[in-house]
Amino acid sequence: MPVDWGADMGKDECKTMLDALNKVTACYRHLVSALGSTSDSQNLREELKKTRKKAQELAVANRTKLTALLKDKSISNDDRAEYERLWVLFTSSMEILEVDMKRSLEIGQSFPLKVPTRHFIQTGMTGSTTTVAARAMSVQNMKYEADASIDTADLKDLETEIAQVDQMMEEMEMKVQVAPWAVEAKQEAGAELKSTVSVGNSSVGVISVCEEEPKEGGEGEAGLMKVFAGIIFTAVLLIAGILGYLVINL
Amino acid sequence: MTIRNVRDHGQRYRPRMSCLKKMEAVVLEMQDPKTGVKSQTQRLVITTIPHAITGEDIVEWIANRFKIDAAEARAMGTMMVAFGYIYPLQDHKRLILKPDTSLYRFQTPYFWPAQQWPVEDTDYAIYLAKRNIRKKGLLELHEQEQYNNLHKWMNHKWDFIVMQAKEQYRAGKERKKPDRVVFDCQERAYWVVHRPPPGTISGMDCGLERMVDPNQEEIIFTQQCIMRPRVKSSVSIGALVKYTTTYKQHDPFLYPCLPSNPWLTDDVTYWHLNMPNVENPTKMRVERWTFSFGELLSDPRGRADFRLFLKKEFSGENLAFWEACEDLKWGAAATMQEKAQQIYKTFLARGAPRWINIDGKTMEITVKGLSHPHRYVLDAAQTHIYMLMKKDSYGRYLKSPVFKETQKKAVAPEAHKFSEAQLEQNAKKRRPSLSPIILRQQEEEQKAKLAASGPVDITQVMSKLAQKKATEPEQKT
Q1: Is A62 on the interface with B (CB under 8 A)?
Q2: Range list of β-strands (E), B172-229
Q3: Where is the RGS domain (chain B) (predicted)?
Q4: B169 to chain A, minimum CA–CA distance in Å?
Q5: Considering only CB atoms, which chain B residues are within 8 Å of A87?
Q6: What predicted TM-score, i.e. pTM, was given to this entire model?
Q7: Confidence check on the interface: ipTM exceeds 0.90, yes or no
Q8: B184 contact partners, CB below 8 Å, separation of at least 6
Q9: For the segment A208-227, what is each residue's pLDDT rounded down to a tens digit?
Q10: Would the CB atoms of B28 and A119 count as touching at under 8 Å?
Q11: Cα B293 from Cα B401, distance rounded (Å)
């Protein structure tokens, strides 16, 4: 069945590419949320630029692949449903990417880097976003080579890129006839909890640090611990009392 | 593909969101290291995070900047918190500004409220999924409900939401601990503003989504107001000054009326002297007729005088027509048709007994309108005749012997000088004036007399002329 094997290959390829696009979109969103704040810097602008370019490459690659797959009339119904699901994943990613690009343009324009009278918002974030960008680009360390005028020069590129993305999405709407509401998700509610079991200790610390009011969610657990401790304590007391009684009596 | 542009329509018809741009400017001012709000460090269990500000510092800064008192500054600060520009670090669900040492922090521009970026449910779903991961499945009650709802109706995107939530969670972990804490607080604050917990009001609540602008009529009205022709204040004030100088002596509030104000002295001579059909009017009354043509016509005695003058000039039909038009305008609807026909027959038709002289165009319009008569069908003709009388006859009337005679015979009563005792006497002698019913009857009688005695036919006027000369002394009364 060379056809099926080819189709499986196509599906796997698609999935990996979509995962990559998904990762880049998530990282891009993180980076855009740092714009205009005290962790904004020339490096951040460069990171945004690079991440954006990568996202676009992935988007184009995904699109060509998926449109090719969907145009193929000889695929089975199950395959078709799967491709439609992947298509919905792709378009949702693109929508988020488009909005984030537009927002980064707007915020980038309102917060130019070099104007001394324009102060960044003191949000409390002071660290750099290198690691996030490195994750997006799938590299170990980021190299920075841009010049000082990146904030203004990049904005023009950004505008053209936004126009390109808009156009691409319109074309996609025209060419591919997929009804997104007809797609059934494979994951059920709460699926995100399953593969992130190994949450790690650091995030536990984060939870306790961010919540400064009494934890409603944690109360159940804490209460249980208290009851347990109480039981042990009373048990110890009882044993001590019994032993003492025995010692006195014996 | 989500339907994208429908929501935009609603956003444009929410003008009160124009405060957002102004608030952004204020927030930017607050960032200045020299003149902005003083910031402190927030000490948590393990980490320290800078850029925390106290509520009292915010209130003080706002009060100084805008020169307002503390209560108003607090209200303004609360607005900033309610919209999400500043978020509280303790008690994060209550979006108010407490003017004590409770800590706040500025929100990053990405999470600022903006009219052009509608808050998407997809983003909220991703946020809830992330929170689910963080809290290991123990969401708050309202969050859990929202989560279930979103899962139901956004089911087709659910894979994407899960994937994106996981990726965003992992991307968040790449940052250093303090930044991670800040980002979580920021995101949580953003969603408290835009998806408020039940029982709280959202500052971003704009009511129902509208497809049509509810203020459209008001907008048209105000646009027309702008386009209205405006009069220079020098002109309008000049007119006001002219009016007041002309009428000031005739105003009983400003000048004592002669002989005495009946309301003050209980002596009704003034009213008797100024009855509508008195034979000899007072000098003041006659003076008022010279102010404008409208004054002359609105005073029944003046109109009678004018009518007399026109009779002598043989142009009485103008005034008669004008009066007939007034009658039609203000009369009962039942008799309207009949009256209109009568007027046409008497004044407008060719060869009519009292034919009035109006220009061809007005005649055409009037005759056309008379086929379907209504109250104002003779308006054009009436205006024409009014202007004719005003420009032509009025001037001649004021120079005529009729008027001069009336002026000569006008009464100028002396001012009364009552003593206290006399005033008391007057007060005791107070009687109610003539009943309006009787007055109306008198009016009707007068009208009937006029209709019967007035010259009807212009063709017969020559023969009547001789008769008039004989009856002149009688007619003068």
Answers
A1: no
A2: none
A3: 292-407
A4: 9
A5: none
A6: 0.57
A7: no
A8: A206, A210, B134, B172
A9: 334 433 333 333 344 567 77
A10: yes
A11: 18
